[in-house]
Structure formats: structure tokens, C-alpha cells
């Protein structure tokens, strides 16, 4: 009998003749946490889709041994029955169904031929309590909740399947620091119950905190595997990118000009509960060439605020928008783009891409009239632009016509950024621009942000990663419970502690 719970040997997976995986190995002991690291497009998600039978046996070469025996699964149901459960980077929840219905989707509890909602709600509540999320109403549709809560619902869904091996693909990408600590503590508890985990994350501090072993792949090839005790974050980065990164954040001089963009009195109300305010009378200005960081805890109202500015917020809201001192009307995203206000959204799957369209079509969709003459698209001109953007952004794709959904999350993000840049923005809103992006690609995005600032574009960057906000922002706004709680010049004295204190300190109400 093998000592390993899982062994993947010489795995090869091709797409249109291009090898996404080229002889990959992975070994996991019972109760072990293996950190799986690599740049975007390295093959991490593809590897896990092979393991979980998203890509069934026969569509790839190599061998998988599960508890010492060959695993030749034809479906996800077979791998889940064996005890392998994957939580994908892109959430797999049905918005219209309740939290409990999502958790038990496909394995509903019945009584006398009818759904036993009482039992499902009780068990769902127990699972959410285990994740320190007792306040979540499991009878409410998941559409009522945002980012971090949805990710934890996915994790609760996986826990309910009695996994022997839990695969977590960027599980903390939408979580706050507090929620991430809850997740890491949960994984430590699973280890004590002999549940193994494969933890995929670009946040190497989390890998360092939780992993027993680290396996690194690059360009679809196995680079190495070693105990975390023998590694450092710098060594992992070197293995991932094949070179040393001497600093995480570039520091490039750029000139900050006059105020070119201003929003006044932003108020947003919950779409499902119009009595609940999500953004409470926030006003601010941005100067030409300025990088304005917006920090705050998950659920503080940052994304709602950005959506309202871009004309996309679905609930009741009001605000005044000024560009170069003149008030403008931004009723929808099309109007925003025409005024030169562009946005890279937080949830690229729902709001940033059209999954079944090609990579190139996604890049040019916001400026398609530019390539249209007499009702016909100049395909040569469009293709030349697409090729240029793929090269400029370093998007890894086998072909510009490949469906964008087949790309890694980070490469999808690069395509969304490219789409907005083609619109020649004067104001660019970046909502979590490096979410799900590897350390090397992050550095390139930061350099791009500085380059845009040098061109005089006003940058508004929302990020849940406070080191990132401090690393590249000229000024930082802090949002807490929908209110503006701080406006700080990032002059070298600003710290994470100051930002967090501001986020947690309630605004004093006038007497």
C-alpha cells in the first residue's frame, strides 16, 4: 500500500496541439497541505481540472494513483465520490438559489420524496458557523451576498462533501485579512482530521503559513518540490519566474497635475433592502497623473461606490460627477466610456468578459466602431490591434480566437485591462486589478499603472491588499461601512495600522 493519498505521474494535457501540461508530477500524503505555485498560465488550474475529472480520463496522458490504486474518473461526480473536492477560482454558485440550496446542490436532503429544507438549512447553518459566519442567513439567495461571503459559501459547500483531499484554487482572492485567517485556521483543523489540501495561491505569505510542502510548476513543466521548512518566499518566486524579483513594487517618478475628476455626494442603497445604505455621502477628487488608492475592509462599500461612478450600480443611488470642472451625466457604462471614464471590474467573470467569445473579441469589444467601415469590420486592422495588445500585456493564449474562458484567471484579467486601455481613458478605475494574478504579472501591472499615470491619466485603484495600496498609491482614501473615514497622503509615514484604524473607527456624527 502506498504511503501517498495521491500521486500524479507524468501528466500531459494538450489544447489544439499546445501542451498546457508537459510531464507534471504531484504527490500528497494524507493530512498534508501542499502549496502549488506557478505564474498565471503555468498550468495549475489545468492540473487540478485533470485531477478532479473536469478533464476526464482519456483526454490526457499519464497516471493518477488514488490511495495506491489507478484513478480513471470520467466525471466530477466520480472524483467527489472518491473524496476529491475542488473549489474553483471562479465561483460556481447559482445566484437565485439560497445559501443552503447552493451548499446541497446535486445532493439534496429529502424526506418522503420532498426536499427537507429544515434539515438542509440546519446543516448549512452548522457549516457556516464552522467558518465563523453564523450571521449569514442560509435561507437567503446567495445574490444577496458579495465577494468574501460567496467564497466562504463555496468552502462550506465543499466541506459538506466529506472530502479526503480538498483542492483550493485561489481561495482567499476575495477574502479580507480576518476571513483569510479563519480559512487558514480551518485548514489547520482539517489537517488534524487527516484531510489533505492542495492550496493554490499567488499570496505566498499564505503558502508560507500553511503549507507542509511546496510544488512549483512553470510553463506546464514540473520545476521542483521541497518542504516549506527548506524554502523562503524569495526562493519560491525564483522557482516560479526563473529569475529574481528584487522588489515587489516599482517606484517610478510621475508628475501629479491639477484636479481633473471629482465625485460628490455618492449615496448607494442595497438593491434588496432600500433602507440599507451601502455608500453614505462620499465625495473625493483625483488629479491628473495621480494614483489614488482606496482601502477598506471587504463589504465596506468600495465596489458599490466604483460601480455607481461607472454607471453600473443596480440599486437606488445618487451622485454628482465632474470632469475637468464640468458636471457630466453617467447613466450607464457606455456613457462613462464615451466621457473617458473606464473601469476594470472586481468580478471579471460576471462583468469583465464574455466567456465564450475569443480573447481578441473580448479585447476589442469596447472600441469595435473604431474598426467598422460601411457596416463591415476591418478584420485586418482589428487583428493587428489584438496582436499588439496580446504582446504588450503578455497574455498567454494559444490563439486570439480561443474562448477567453479557457485562459487562466490572470490572463483573463490582462485582457480586461487591455480592453479598457484601448478606450483611451482619462480616468481609469481598477477594482482589485491584481486579484488572482501571480507575483511576476503583478509587477508588470504595477509598471503599467505608473506608465498610465505618467501619461496624465487619473488612476483610482481599489485593493484589499494593504501592502499593494501602500506600495504604489500617491494618496489613500479609507472607506468603512460606506463612509469616507480617511484621506491620507502616502508620504512614507502612512502604515497599515493607520489605514486599519481609520477603517474601523466610526465617523463622529454631528450633534
TrEMBL record:
The keyword Cell membrane applies. The lineage of its organism: Bacteria, Pseudomonadati, Pseudomonadota, Alphaproteobacteria, Hyphomicrobiales. It is a peripheral membrane protein. One of its GO terms (cellular component) is plasma membrane. Keywords: ATP-binding, Cell inner membrane, Cell membrane, Membrane, Nucleotide-binding, Repeat, Sugar transport, Translocase, Transport. Pfam families: ABC_tran. The keyword Aminoacyl-tRNA synthetase does not apply. Residues 6-244, 263-506 form the ABC transporter domain. One of its GO terms (molecular function) is ATP binding. SMART domains: AAA (SM00382). CDD domains: ABC_Carb_Monos_I, ABC_Carb_Monos_II. It comes from the Bacteria. Belongs to the ABC transporter superfamily. Its main location: membrane. InterPro entries: AAA+_ATPase (IPR003593), ABC_carbohydrate_import_ATPase (IPR050107), ABC_transporter-like_ATP-bd (IPR003439), ABC_transporter-like_CS (IPR017871), ABC_transptr_XylG (IPR013455), P-loop_NTPase (IPR027417). It comes from Consotaella salsifontis. This is Xylose ABC transporter ATP-binding protein. It is found in: Cell membrane.
Amino acid at each position: 500500500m502506498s504511503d501517498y493519498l495521491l500521486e500524479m505521474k507524468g501528466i500531459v494535457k494538450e489544447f489544439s496541439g499546445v501542451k498546457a501540461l508537459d510531464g507534471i508530477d504531484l504527490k500528497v500524503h494524507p493530512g498534508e497541505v501542499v502549496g502549488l505555485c506557478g505564474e498565471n498560465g503555468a498550468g495549475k488550474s489545468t492540473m487540478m481540472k485533470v485531477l478532479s475529472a473536469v478533464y476526464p480520463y482519456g483526454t490526457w496522458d499519464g497516471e493518477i494513483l488514488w490511495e495506491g490504486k489507478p484513478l480513471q474518473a470520467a466525471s466530477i461526480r466520480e472524483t467527489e465520490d472518491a473524496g476529491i473536492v475542488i473549489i474553483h477560482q471562479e465561483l460556481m454558485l447559482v445566484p437565485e438559489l439560497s445559501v443552503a440550496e447552493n451548499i446541497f446542490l446535486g445532493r439534496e436532503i429529502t424526506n418522503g420524496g420532498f426536499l427537507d429544507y429544515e434539515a438542509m438549512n440546519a446543516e448549512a447553518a452548522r457549516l457556516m458557523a464552522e467558518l465563523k459566519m453564523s450571521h449569514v442567513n442560509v435561507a437567503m439567495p446567495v445574490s444577496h451576498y458579495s465577494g468574501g461571503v460567496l467564497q466562504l459559501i463555496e468552502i462550506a459547500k465543499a466541506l459538506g462533501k466529506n472530502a479526503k483531499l480538498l483542492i483550493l484554487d485561489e481561495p482567499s482572492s476575495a477574502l479580507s485579512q480576518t476571513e483569510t485567517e479563519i480559512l487558514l485556521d480551518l485548514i489547520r483543523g482539517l489537517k488534524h482530521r487527516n484531510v489533505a489540501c492542495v492550496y493554490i495561491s499567488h499570496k505566498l505569505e499564505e503558502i508560507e503559513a500553511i503549507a507542509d510542502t511546496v510544488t512549483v510548476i512553470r510553463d506546464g513543466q514540473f520545476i521542483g518540490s521541497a518542504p516549506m521548512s527548506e524554502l523562503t518566499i524569495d526562493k519560491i518566486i525564483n522557482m516560479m519566474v526563473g529569475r529574481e524579483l528584487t522588489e515587489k513594487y516599482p517606484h517610478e517618478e510621475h508628475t501629479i497635475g491639477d484636479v481633473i475628476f471629482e465625485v460628490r455626494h455618492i449615496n448607494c442603497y442595497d438593491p434588496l433592502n432600500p433602507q440599507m445604505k451601502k455608500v453614505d455621502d462620499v465625495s473625493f477628487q483625483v488629479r491628473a497623473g495621480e494614483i489614488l488608492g482606496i482601502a477598506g475592509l471587504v463589504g465596506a462599500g468600495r465596489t458599490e461606490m466604483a460601480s455607481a461612478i461607472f454607471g453600473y450600480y443596480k440599486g437606488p443611488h445618487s451622485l454628482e460627477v465632474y470632469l475637468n470642472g464640468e458636471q457630466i451625466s453617467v447613466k450607464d457604462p457606455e456613457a462613462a466610456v464615451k466621457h473617458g471614464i473606464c473601469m476594470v471590474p472586481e468580478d471579471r467573470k460576471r462583468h469583465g468578459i464574455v466567456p465564450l467569445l475569443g480573447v481578441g473579441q473580448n479585447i476589442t469589444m469596447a472600441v469595435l466602431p473604431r474598426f467598422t467601415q460601411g457596416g463591415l469590420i476591418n478584420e485586418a486592422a482589428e487583428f493587428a490591434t489584438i496582436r499588439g495588445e496580446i504582446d504588450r500585456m503578455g497574455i498567454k493564449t494559444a490563439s486570439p480566437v480561443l474562448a477567453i474562458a479557457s485562459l487562466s484567471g490572470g490572463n483573463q484579467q490582462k485582457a480586461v485591462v487591455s480592453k479598457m486601455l484601448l478606450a483611451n481613458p482619462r480616468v481609469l478605475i481598477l477594482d482589485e486589478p491584481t486579484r488572482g494574478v501571480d507575483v511576476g504579472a503583478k509587477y508588470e501591472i504595477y509598471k503599467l499603472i505608473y506608465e498610465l499615470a505618467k501619461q496624465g491619466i487619473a488612476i483610482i485603484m481599489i485593493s484589499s491588499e494593504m501592502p499593494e495600496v501602500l506600495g504604489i498609491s500617491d494618496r489613500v482614501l479609507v472607506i468603512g461601512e460606506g463612509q469616507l473615514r480617511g484621506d491620507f497622503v502616502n508620504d512614507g509615514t502612512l502604515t497599515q495600522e493607520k489605514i486599519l484604524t481609520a477603517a474601523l473607527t466610526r465617523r463622529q456624527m454631528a450633534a
